[in-house]
Specification:
Blueprint (H helix, E strand, L loop, with lengths): L2 H10 L3 E5 L8 H11 L5 E5 L5 E2 L2 E2 L14 E4 L6 H11 L3 E4 L9 H17 L2 E3 L5 E4 L5 E4 L7 E8 L2 H13 L4 E6 L8 H10 L5 E6 L5 H12 L4 E5 L4 H11 L6 H11 L2 E3 L2 H13 L7 E6 L2 H13 L3 E2 L4 H8 L12 E2 L6 H12 L6 E5 L3 H15 L7 H29 L3 E4 L6 H4 L2 H8 L4 E2 L2 H20 L4
Parallel strand pairs: 1-2, 1-5, 5-6, 6-7, 10-11, 10-12, 12-13, 13-14, 15-16, 15-17, 15-18, 18-19, 19-20
Antiparallel strand pairs: 3-4, 8-9, 8-11
């Protein structure tokens, strides 16, 4: 265990948590955060602290932090009003608490007296050696090893390899919601708030050394020490992808950032140039952030910009070709030996070009066979595959017809049988797609319109693919953009001699 990992252990893997300001009022943070923690299965010791209560959450309540029999406490969470925070910080420091999360707002983002209080709490934490998260934050999440969901939002995200530090609790929740919906796991997530003591670069440094983390994401409104941020981010980016969503690109956005967390947004152009030099992947919005981190989490890094496209329909293939051109990817001419291989199993009327258009002649089976032919080709660095889980989509309709019992064409039992066969076929080819990515160690970025109805249809094949970590994007453009970010990662690593 490195010194940095050991330093953050009480925050992300605490054995004990004290809730200062624990409440029985379900509308207050003092109820919401500990109830989420307990209901989602935290496997450490929980100690509510409130001088006016005797029992909460079926647990004994302590009048003060120093009355708790287990000392020192790994993590304390302060959910009291801002006017009481400084006393809480002092009490935690004196009790030897190793890490403290301050939820309340009303400090540096207001300036004046609030900024002074924020500086004082940082001084106390620094002098005592206690980690301080916030103030003005939403909490921390670390699914493994302790089922730590110590946050305001009632979201339980599955374990995974993506870590995120966000200066907005709201943006952190958005990523969690997307991750939950699309079967994506996270390793760590922290709402950093005003960053009175711990700053964005401190979390990035930890994520860089955390063995549970493969991909690093950050939402940034501003940084106080730009040089330190970029030096640490550069070190981390040589080991792991670091994806940054930097806001405050306009004067309106800069004003909003200032009033939100007190962050100094800084020059968009300077930050953008520094990110490129440091090897950071910069994105423009939450959608692009999610698309990019999910690509990095599962897809191999391509060794070039040459793309092969396989499409179940002509229109999507054209859209993908345009998007590839927009993002600087090369839709290559396929060698004659690859065309002949495709000739051997595609219909005679196929287009004999790239994109490979299946023109309705084959379904998921064709996507897998064509994708393998392209992945095996030395002139192709990766594949964008368009259209999967179509048979499972059909299966959902067959089950609806069976349930209605009104069909004049087939009995409910026959429709159920057809649906079972369709899903089984889809699952077989979905499994083959995953194997192809691993076999050829080239990316196969996938988009399919079946995503739009996945939950209505309960599309088992699509969920199985995403359960393997392979994100399915809803449009060709989003798939091409994710592929382009993978390429940029290779080009950066090559430029610093890391590949």
């Amino acid at each position: 265990m490195t010194d940095v990992v050991k330093k953050f252990e009480p925050l992300f893997e605490p054995k004990s948590i004290a809730f200062i300001g624990a409440s029985r009022n379900p509308l207050k943070w003092g109820y919401q955060i500990p109830s989420n923690l307990i209901e989602f299965g935290y496997n450490g010791n929980v100690y509510p602290v409130n001088p006016h209560e005797s029992d909460l959450f079926k647990l004994k309540v302590y009048r003060s932090i120093d009355e708790i029999p287990e000392q020192p406490i790994d993590l304390a969470v302060a959910t009291v009003p801002s006017r009481l925070i400084l006393e809480v910080v002092k009490d935690c420091a004196q009790a030897g608490v190793r890490a403290l999360i301050v939820i309340a707002a009303g400090f540096g983002e207001l300036g004046g007296e609030g900024a002074g209080k924020e500086a004082e709490m940082a001084r106390i934490a620094r002098d005592s050696g206690m980690l301080l998260v916030g103030p003005n934050c939403a909490g921390v999440v670390s699914p493994e090893p302790r089922n730590l969901y110590c946050q305001m939002p009632p979201v339980k995200t599955s374990p995974g390899c993506i870590a995120m530090a966000s200066q907005s609790g709201n943006i952190g929740k958005t990523i969690q919601d997307l991750a939950t919906k699309y079967h994506v796991g996270i390793s760590r997530l922290v709402s950093t708030g005003n960053e009175a003591f711990l700053h964005m670069e401190d979390y990035l440094e930890y994520f860089g050394e955390d063995t549970r983390t493969k991909v690093v994401a950050s939402y940034v409104e501003g940084v106080d020490d730009g040089r330190r941020f970029l030096n640490i981010a550069r070190d981390v980016s040589r080991k792991k992808p670091v994806v940054v969503l930097k806001v405050g690109r306009t004067q309106a956005g800069q004003r909003a950032a200032k009033s939100h967390t007190g962050a100094l947004a800084g020059s968009r152009e300077i930050f953008h140039g520094a990110c490129r030099q440091a090897g950071l992947t910069e994105v423009a919005d939450v959608e692009e952030l999610f698309d990019t981190i999910t690509a990095f989490a599962r897809q191999p890094i391509p060794r070039g910009r040459r793309v092969g496209i396989v499409s179940e329909g002509g229109g999507w293939g054209v859209l993908a070709a345009d998007a590839c051109a927009e993002f600087g990817l090369e839709v290559v001419d396929l060698p004659e030996h690859v065309l002949k291989q495709l000739d051997s199993f595609l219909p005679s009327w196929w287009s004999r070009g790239n994109p490979v258009d299946l023109v309705g002649g084959m379904v998921d089976q064709g996507v897998a066979k064509c994708a393998e032919a392209l992945l095996a080709c030395d002139e192709v660095d990766g594949v964008i595959a368009l259209g999967v889980a179509f048979l499972a989509r059909q299966a959902a309709e067959y089950r609806r017809r069976a349930a209605s019992g009104t069909s004049k064409l087939a009995s409910p039992a026959l429709y159920e049988q057809i649906a079972d066969i369709a899903i089984q076929r889809d699952l077989e080819w979905i499994g083959e797609l995953v194997k192809l990515i691993d076999r050829y160690q080239k990316p196969m970025v996938i988009a399919a319109d079946t995503v739009f109805t996945a939950y209505e249809d309960k599309n088992e094949a699509l969920f199985a693919l995403m359960g393997e970590g392979v994100m399915v994007y809803p449009t060709p453009r989003r798939a091409a953009r994710a592929f382009a970010h993978l390429v940029e990662r290779h080009e950066y690593l090559a430029s610093v001699g890391a590949v």
